[in-house]
Amino acid sequence: MKPLQSCDYHQFRHFSTDGKYQSCSRCWHLVGSVKKSVTIYPPDVAYYLRQKGQYIEKLANHYPLCPAFKADKSLKIIYPNMDAKLFLPRDFNGKTQPVICKAGHTGTGKKVFWYLDDVYLGETVEEHKMGVIFNEGWNTIKVIDEYGAEDSQRVLATLKSGNQQ
Q: CA 84 to CA 140: how far, in whole Å?
């Protein structure tokens, strides 16, 4: 009989003895270690589950003083997709309007900072949506959270001419 395959979203993680932080072999001696099974969704899956009212347990951050600590993949741009071709929306007067960009974060209540071609646009908390006015041509949109996790997408923005259907 074959054993059941485990779910990709259920993983074993190590936490500090007080449960406040995740720990690893490089920082166990600083905060202790308790092994626990947790459900971890990718940022885009977590975003859509929250939109549908699903409760997702908040995952503790890694111990910040850990010598091996690096920001993880807890942040992801959901829209626009990588190398997407965007037709820039215009109002009735022909003025370019913002495109609503979305990002997902595995944690709740985290600050996310938005950049377009390395120019700061603003920050969001909780619901990570930002209206962005793209320049015509190739643009790079980047998001960075307060812990240093980041994601970026390259997109091509074009104006659709008035005589095209």
A: 11
